[in-house]
Amino acid sequence: MRFTGTSGPLAALDTGPGRRGTVLLVAGFTGSKEDFAPLLDPVAAAGWRAVAVDQRGQFESPGPDDPAAYTVDELAADLLVLATELHGEGPLHLLGHSFGGIVARAAVLADPGTFASLTLLASGPVGLTGPRADLLEHLAPLLEAGGVALVHRTLEELALTDPSAPPVPAPVREFLARRFLANSEAGLTGMAAAMTGEPDRVAELRSTGVPVLVAHGADDDAWSPAAQEDMAHRLGARHEVIGGSVHSPAIEQPARTVELLTGFWAGVPAGVDA
C-alpha cells in the first residue's frame, strides 16, 4: 500500500479492516515495515487492522535529499498525516520500534488525542548512547567516502567478526542487503543525528495521559533494559520484558510479542479513542 506523508508517499503493509480498531507500526533506524511481518497475521486474526510503515527515506518510501528533513518532528508529522487516513471504526493504537519509538512518542506529544495508546518497543527515554551510538559516529565519513554501499559493506564485515551473531539464511541476507541499499543517504545522516540527539521527554509523555506499554527484550543491546524499566516506572506505564529477545522482539519472539500487544490494546479503556 501507499499512504500520504508530508513529503511524499509512505510504503506500508496493510492487513485491511479490523473490527477492534487499527494499529500503526513504525520501523526503526535502517529498518522497514517487514520488521513487523511475523506480527501482522496474528494481530489481524485477533481483530485489529495492522499497518506497518516505512518511514520517509527507508526502503520503499522515498525521502528528501536534505538531512534536515529527517528530524524527529518532521518524521512525526508524517505519522499524524497518515493517522488521518487510518481513522475509521474503533481506536487507533501506535507502536514504534527502537528509533521508531522516539518518532512515535513525538507524534503523541504533538497531538495526544489522535492515538488511543502508545507502545514503545525496544525504545528508550533519550537519544541512543553506548556502542551502537559510537558506531553511528563513523556513519558520516563512510557516507562521504562511499555512500550507502560502503556503509553496508562495512557493517557486513563487522557482522562477520561477531561470534555471537546468529547465522542468517541466504534469502534473508539478500533481502537485508537490498533493503539497506535502498535507504536514502540523507535519511541515514538525518536519522542518525535525530536518534542520538533526542532529549528526555518522559515527563511530557506522562502528562498526556495516553496509555503506554514499554516492552523490550531481556538482553536489549541498544537502550539497556534498566533504562527502559526506569522509563516505564517514570511513565506509570505497563512494563514487559520479553525473554529470549535482544533488540527485535517482533522477529525474535513473535508469539510472545503478539500476546503482550493484543492484551495491552484490549485493555485500553473503551472511551480512549481519537
TrEMBL record:
SUPFAM superfamilies reported in the protein's UniProt record: alpha/beta-Hydrolases (SSF53474)
InterPro entries, per the entry: AB_hydrolase, AB_hydrolase_1, AB_hydrolase_fold
AB hydrolase-1 domain mapped to chain residues: 23-259
One Pfam family recorded for the sequence: Abhydrolase_6
Signal peptide start-end: none
GO biological process terms held by the UniProt record: glycerolipid catabolic process
GO MF term (any one): triacylglycerol lipase activity
PANTHER family with a match to the protein in the record: AB HYDROLASE-1 DOMAIN-CONTAINING PROTEIN, HYDROLASE, ALPHA/BETA FOLD FAMILY PROTEIN
Name of the featured protein: Unannotated protein
Taxonomic path: unclassified sequences, metagenomes, ecological metagenomes
